[in-house]
Amino acid sequence: MSSFEIIMPKLGESVQEATITKMLVKLNDQVEEDDMLFEIATDKVDSEIPCPVDGKVIEIRFNEGDVVPVGEVVALIALGDVDDIEEPAAETTSAPVTESPIEESVGSVSTSDIQSSSGRFYSPLVKSIAASENISVQELESISGNGIDGRVQKQDVLNFLAQRNGSAVSAPKKEVAASPVSTPAPTSAPTPVAEKPKVSMSIGAQDQIVEMDRMRRIIADHMVMSKQTSPHVTAMVEADVTDMVNWRNKVKDEFLKKEGTKITFMPIIIEAVSKALREFPGINASVDGYNVILRKNINVGVAVALPSGNLIVPVIKNSDQKNLVGLATDMNRLANDARNNKLNPDDISGGTFTISNFGSFKNVMGTPIINQPQVAILAVGTIEKKPAVVETPVGDAIVVRQKMFLSLSYDHRVVDGALGGAFLRKIADYLEEFDTNRAI
Fold this sequence. Notes:
The structure is a single chain. The chain is of the alpha+beta class. The protein is 26% helix and 23% strand. The relative contact order is 0.11. Mean pLDDT is 82; it is low at 84-108 and 167-191.
């Protein structure tokens, strides 16, 4: 009898595990290709996992609520005709799971109380916060959830606590030892690393200690890894984007009326970046040891700030093959889905180059950290009116122009100054030579 392994998929560059929020099949169920097997959640996305084959479910190794590492086998599907299999005892259907201390009663509610008296699903993290913050079952069930099917998420609970306590709450309470203080390393680290040097510090009586949430810890580890992996070099140019600004201001109302979506400066920048990447394939690349992987597809990611203060990078696939309407539509949809926690795993994977918009916070310029395994990242600053010297038929003149800084951080292992500088200059050229007569 041949079987097919259903594994936990990779849900983004930095995601190492996911929680099974709902199991949609049971042992001996007959399934067809594209039938949904289970729902999963991470701090970045919620998603349904489809079955890639036809067959029968002959083994389920994890239960609802289990946290499963990426690449772990969740279930087995028997291919072809298979006789009915007797369902084993409940204790043999899941992998051994170490009992967590959050299952014990804490305060007025325990995680077991929550599960037995409510029809709603609560993730282990939500139950842990509820237990440590003495949230009753009745209070928890009154919270409106923003996840799939109204599922209560961590931020929903923290918002409830902030309203109940009249102050901001950003993490469940934990015992904190006296100085020195060090944040425990995430349990999802794929491989052991050398112990990081500890920084000693004093803590004042009125200081507040806020533990990083899981998403912030993943971002922190990813940023440290990037700086340790790639020798960063940053180059900058100032681009005159007066024509681009004038064109966008002229057509934005007509664009919205005709296309049903807003046109911002970002789709225009993505278009320029995509053209430049096509001309400089050495930037659209990754490094594998002493090998350079030149990516065939151009997939541009744009960093989006979330309401929680964290960051996520949705990706526009094949951006060089799309016009401004397509880029604007994709960008607006992805940004909106990111802020509402509706991104799919495919929306945040496969990026080959990233743009970080420092200008959205009125910053002039920045030196961004490379989004591994890419080899470069572009930061765009705010657009400002500045006096500039321009040549005219009757001589030089000082006029008001719209200027913007572009800064490119690149991996000096494979991108030298000549390549990085020429690529950055080409992006600026495309923006400065924007055709103000182009139709929408």
